[in-house]
Design goal:
alpha+beta; single chain; 42% helix; three-stranded mixed beta sheet
Length: 386
């Protein structure tokens, strides 16, 4: 079968990426690739990921029309990913100094069009006052030099600093290694260092990982999230409204033994009414009584998550209903129509000032997270009696 030539989206005047139907290249990955992925996985450069990975995997190869580009872009599989590469693409083809190249890069990132059009002439033909030779004097055609400058204007707007990407890559590698080899310990640490609002998403991750997760228990939980017999227990200090009050509970339990009953707890701790209610509503006192009434909404209000059972389990799954999980909504943009189902809470309504029409607000949650919803006047009028 003949090779199918595919032109690169932006660099088609500089090189061609060629598809190879049959390849046997063994693909190896290292820290440099992780650094590159972090720099590329953002709006703008993300559109070149398919071409980049194709070259990495040996499915495609690159023919450069400007020879100097190969040594600069070879390590990133033909794609401009880093600010340092933008500087090199000024230095090598046109003999800019690194300082001069960085000044032009900054002007490009700030879109100073008037200055850049003057700089275009210097890049192509040179500038004797600054000792810039220019591309033409280095054997590059005027057409290719002009195209390269236009492309550099686009790339300079999003090119990432490689040293920053390297720092993120090291942390990412360490995080992935810990999460894989010490999953339970890693998730415990994450839960102990996250905000209250992010706990629901993390609890969903625990369920996906098959990790058993318990609501707080006044005799089993510590101040922070803890591991007990290979299972995770909600930290008393993470119950909404408890905070540092959990320290005294844990210290009393260590000193004088576990609490034998609700009365024993009250006599020994002498908690305020609010603290006692938060512990009861969170399920921390369930061990004293087997016939508790489930109060899921209260549980959610103090834990930030439906830990024992989510009301949505009473209905068909999100995907069975043809809906989208809340955590995936960020992938949708513009005027796309998306169906979402969940548990509504914190309902409130008000009247629009110009005409007094009613509008409504509420929170919608599922296993993966929670969002704020606004129901505008026309929609609310049609559906308020549902």
């Amino acid at each position: 079968m003949d090779n199918k030539s595919l032109s690169h989206t932006r660099w088609k005047c500089q090189y061609h990426i060629v598809f190879i139907p049959k390849y046997r290249k063994k693909v190896l990955y290292n820290l440099s690739d992780l650094i590159l992925l972090i720099a590329m996985y953002r709006p703008g450069p993300m559109q070149y990921l398919e071409d980049m990975t194709g070259v990495k995997q040996g499915k495609r190869f690159i023919h450069y029309k400007i020879p100097q580009m190969e040594s600069i872009l070879k390590s990133t599989y033909g794609c401009v990913a880093f600010q340092e590469q933008v500087q090199e693409l000024f230095k090598q083809p046109a003999d800019y100094s690194y300082g001069q190249a960085d000044l032009v890069r900054r002007a490009m990132s700030k879109k100073k069009e008037e200055d850049l059009e003057e700089e275009r002439h210097s890049f192509i033909y040179g500038d004797d006052e600054r000792a810039v030779a220019g591309c033409v004097k280095n054997g590059i055609s005027e057409e290719n030099a002009n195209t390269l400058f236009s492309q550099l204007k686009e790339f300079a707007g999003y090119a990432f600093n490689k040293s920053h990407a390297a720092c993120y890559a090291i942390v990412s590698y360490q995080t992935a290694w810990l999460k894989y080899h010490y999953t339970l310990e890693y998730m415990k640490s994450v839960l102990n260092h996250t905000s209250f609002e992010k706990i629901p998403g993390l609890v969903m991750d625990l369920k996906d990982m098959g990790i058993k997760f318990h609501v707080p228990d006044i005799n089993c939980s510590k101040q922070e999230f803890r591991i007990l017999d290979g299972e995770l227990w909600f930290g008393l200090g993470s119950v909404k409204g408890i905070g540092e009050a959990a320290v005294g509970v844990v210290e009393e339990r260590k000193k004088n033994g576990v609490f034998q009953s609700l009365s024993d707890f009250v006599l020994r701790i002498q908690p305020s009414k609010n603290i006692l209610e938060e512990f009861i509503c969170s399920g921390a006192m369930d061990g004293f009584c087997e016939n508790r009434w489930e109060r899921l909404m209260i549980e959610k209000s103090v834990l930030g998550v439906f830990a024992s059972r989510h009301p949505i389990t009473l209905f068909p799954s999100v995907r069975e209903c043809g809906a989208v999980e809340i955590e995936r909504l960020q992938k949708y943009h513009g005027n796309q129509n998306v169906t979402v189902i969940g548990n509504a809470s914190d309902f409130r309504k008000c009247r629009r000032k110009p005409d007094g029409a009613e509008i409504a607000f509420f929170k919608l949650s599922d296993f993966t997270g929670e969002i704020e919803v606004c129901c505008f006047a026309d929609a609310y009028k049609k559906r308020k009696n549902f």
